[in-house]
TrEMBL record:
It comes from Shouchella lehensis. Na(+) binds at residues 71, 74. One of its GO terms (biological process) is cellular detoxification of fluoride. It comes from the Bacteria. This is Fluoride-specific ion channel FluC.
C-alpha cells in the first residue's frame, strides 16, 4: 500500500510537472495554441509512452510508475489504454461505448460545470 501511494505521488507529480513545463515551452517558444495544439500533443505523447511501457511488459513497479506518470501527464493515456483493451479483448461494443460515453460525457460534464458557475 505504501509503495503504491509513493508511486502515485511521485509518478503523478512528475507527470503533471512535465505537462506544465512542456506546455509552457511549446506555447512560449513555438507559439503553439494551448487550447488544441499543446493539449493534443501532450495527450498523444502520453498515450504513446503508456503504450510502449505496457507493450514492453516491464516489472510491475515500473509499469505502475509509468501508468501514474502518464496519468499525471494526461489522463487521456489511461483512457486510451482502457478503450484499446476492450478492442484487444474483442469486446467491440464495450470499447466503442466506452469511447462515446467518456468523450461525450466529459464534454457534457464540463459544459454543465461551466454553466453552473457562469
Amino acid at each position: 500500500m505504501l509503495t503504491t501511494l509513493l508511486l502515485v505521488s511521485i509518478g503523478g507529480g512528475t507527470g503533471a510537472f512535465l505537462r506544465f513545463i512542456i506546455g509552457e515551452f511549446l506555447t512560449l517558444h513555438y507559439k503553439w495554441s494551448r487550447c488544441f495544439t499543446v493539449i493534443a500533443f501532450i495527450n498523444i505523447v502520453g498515450s504513446t509512452v503508456l503504450g510502449v511501457a505496457v507493450a514492453a511488459k516491464p516489472s510491475s513497479v515500473f509499469e505502475l510508475f509509468i501508468l501514474y506518470l502518464c496519468g499525471g501527464f494526461t489522463t487521456f493515456s489511461t483512457f486510451s489504454l482502457e478503450a484499446l483493451q476492450g478492442f484487444l479483448d474483442k469486446e467491440w461494443i464495450k470499447g466503442i461505448s466506452y469511447i462515446i460515453v467518456t468523450v461525450i460525457g466529459s464534454m457534457l460534464g464540463f459544459g454543465l460545470g461551466f454553466v453552473i458557475l457562469f
